[in-house]
Design a protein that fits this description.
- The chain is of the alpha/beta class.
- The chain has one domain: Metallo-beta-lactamase, Chain A.
- The protein has six helices and 14 strands.
- The strands form two sheets. A seven-stranded mixed sheet has the order 6-5-4-3-2-1-14.
Length: about 250
């Protein structure tokens, strides 16, 4: 079976790999139910868009993968409705948060873990440069690899760094999810990847099919799907980058 990704909204996805369904960073609130991101340029309530899928699909997942615990990556709605018996993968830093939320099966990954034939490697990175990075803290990405179906790299909210570049060079994942919305704080610091970062990764790792997510859902995200699509066409790299719509399923 090929790897497939159902993009739910923002960065929430369901990845099917090696016969398992992993729910990636669930943010399941109804439109407008969450506050604006603090210290940003507008005060629109989040999420900006509604879910296009039924909540019932989240009952049939084998595990949850948490990259970090900002409210747009695991919200109170998700904490209240997801089955507390579901296995959760996270970093050591986030383990106590998951425990306090009532989840009973937690595997905190420091570097490497193997689960159900899926090799899982955690790759840490900064959420932003400089002082903003110290405020927001580090975040996790996860590289998942199987013998028969290939590999997928969930980069998370890590900005582009030499370590991220090295990861693409060394591991050359078949698929990668890039949070690339040019999210911006009010003082001008960009705290996700940018359109130029996508272009760099496309050139660096041409065999990797890139999925650009984190778009059109949270109030501090400047880059829209339309703007990114236009940029990719200008750079003639739209063939290697996909911009999934909410609810869309893509198989590789």
């Amino acid at each position: 079976m090929p790897i497939s990704v159902q993009h739910i909204r923002h960065v929430t996805s369901i990845i099917s790999i090696n016969g398992k369904r992993l729910l990636i960073v669930p943010m399941l609130s109804e439109a407008g139910k969450l506050s604006p991101v603090p210290f940003t340029r507008n005060y629109r309530r989040n999420p900006l868009t509604s879910l296009t899928v039924s909540l019932h699909i989240f009952e049939d997942v084998d595990a949850i993968l948490l990259t970090h615990r900002h409210f747009d990556h695991w919200d109170t709605k998700s904490l209240s409705i997801l089955n507390k018996e579901t296995l959760v993968f996270c970093s050591l830093r986030d383990q106590s948060f998951v425990q306090k939320a009532g989840f009973k099966k937690i595997i905190a990954i420091n570097d490497y873990y193997e689960w159900e034939g899926i090799q899982m490697r955690r790759i840490e990175g900064p959420h932003a440069p400089g002082i903003t990075g110290k405020i927001l803290g580090t975040v996790s990405g996860f590289y998942l690899n199987t013998m028969s179906e290939g590999s997928i790299y969930i980069v998370g909210d890590c900005i582009y760094t030499p370590n991220i570049e090295k990861t693409f060079r060394d591991l050359s994942p078949d698929v990668a999810l890039l949070n690339a919305s040019e999210a911006e704080m009010i003082w001008g610091t960009i705290i996700t990847m940018t359109r130029e970062d996508i272009a760099r990764i496309a050139q660096l790792s041409p065999k990797t099919k890139l999925l650009a997510v984190h778009l059109d859902t949270i109030n501090h995200c400047k880059l829209s799907r339309k703007q990114l699509s236009d940029f990719l066409k200008e750079q003639d790299i739209n063939g290697s980058v996909l911009i999934p719509e909410d609810g869309e399923i893509i198989s590789f």
